[in-house]
Amino acid sequence: MSTPDPSQTPPGQPSPAVPPYGYAGARGYGAPAYGQPPQPPQAPGSYAQPAWGAAPAPMPAAGSRRGLALLAVILGAFPLAMSLFQPFALRAVVGSGNYAVWSLVSLVIGILSLLTGVGAIVFGLLARRDAPLPAGIGIGLGAAAAAGALIGFLYTLVATY
At a CB cut-off of 8 Å and minimum separation 6, what does 16 contact? Predict the structure, then answer.
């Protein structure tokens, strides 16, 4: 008897010439081993490019305005922080009985809110191309702060006269 011919194997049995599924011993045959990405056959001496994973993020350019976007967010959040401390200042002023001081404190808070709001809008507009998300947040916070300060000033003018 001679050796069996690989083309005449019984049905349901793998051919001895073809490695079983999951065998990663020879390049180009079968499926890759568990947990490894499939790789195309390589020429001898060449190196494979990684098949998966995100590309590294590019470094920001020297003239990048991402810092301006962060400054816009900080300036836009500053009036919010001041408004959180405003009730405590009101309580202290009312407790002392000196109401003239409260009008001065309100004026200073209003002017600072208006200036920081306008600054957040300006810096957000300058940085909107390099960092659109933080710039947009800064613009939104700045617009809300500036609008609140302007409405407060207008209300004071209308209510006092």
Answer: 6, 9
